[in-house]
Amino acid sequence: MQILGIDIGGSGIKGAPVNIADGTLAAERQRVPTPSPSTPDAVAGVIRQIADNFGGTGGPIGITFPGVVKNGRILTAANVDPAWVDFDAATFFSAKLGRPAVVINDADAAGIAEARLGAGRGIAGTVVLLTLGTGIGSAVFLDGKLMPNTEFGHMEVRGKDAEERAAERVREEKDLGWQEWGERVGEVVARLAFLLSPDLVIIGGGVSRKADKFLPVVQGMVKVPVVPAQLQNQAGLVGAALVAAEYAAPA
Ligand code: BGC
């Protein structure tokens, strides 16, 4: 079975049909810059464009959102238009796209993909995934089961939101070197390790492709094993598709 997965980010909206059995992409991923302002109508327009491009049957679609999502309703939107807050995105997207839409937090979606098919597969105990992108997202698992909507990117580190110090966006904007930025990420991981005593920390987001440049710095600051996401920047849309598949065919 193939399900369309969409990942709404602060800078890009990505989509691809996903083979549910193994999480591979059935076609090359498409990326469209996030519209500015990133209002619900503008974002739905981009998703429709991506969905039309892949064609298909009009089956369910899995969509990630970079904020807290409860039962399809958006509760926070730190890095996209405030019009999303307290907005029933699942009902809105279903109506706009004419097909069932499942909406889930972006880091939770990436975590689900990694827990089932990637770096967290078969790991017992507490596993934490952090996504480093426009913001910092978190997903926390106990024995493979997600505790949804954790927001460790907004934990305070040195008097600031963790994501204001250590997101990939901050590295780019401040032109930080890998060592300096790695130390900032390491501080965030160390704080989380102290609070949750995880058994494994997975680092996701597009920058996980360059893990060799900064993960050794992070690992040098904590005892818990820290590994890059195996699905890298695909994890969010793959996780969204996995969740939508369950919605289509509940266990
Ligand atoms: C949001 C999270 C999101 C993360 C990554 C944060 O600013 O509050 O919900 O997962 O950014 O996009």
Question: Can I get a quick summary?
Answer:
36% of the residues lie in helices and 25% in strands. The chain is α/β, with parallel strands linked by helices. It binds beta-D-glucopyranose.
Please explain how this structure is put together.
The chain is an alpha/beta fold and 251 residues long. 36% of the residues lie in helices and 25% in strands. The chain is built from eight helices and 15 strands. The strands form four sheets. Strands 3-2-1-4-8 form a five-stranded mixed sheet. It has a five-stranded mixed sheet with strand order 11-10-9-14-15, with helices on both faces. It has a three-stranded antiparallel sheet with strand order 5-6-7. Helix 1 crosses helix 2 (89-97), helix 3 (106-117) crosses helix 8 and helix 6 crosses helix 7 (211-219). The longest helix has 19 residues, at 178-196. The chain is globular and about 50 Å long. The two termini are 15 Å apart. The structure holds beta-D-glucopyranose. Beta-D-glucopyranose (BGC) is lined by residues 66-68, 76, 78-79, 105-107, 131, 133, 135-137, 151, 153-154, 163.
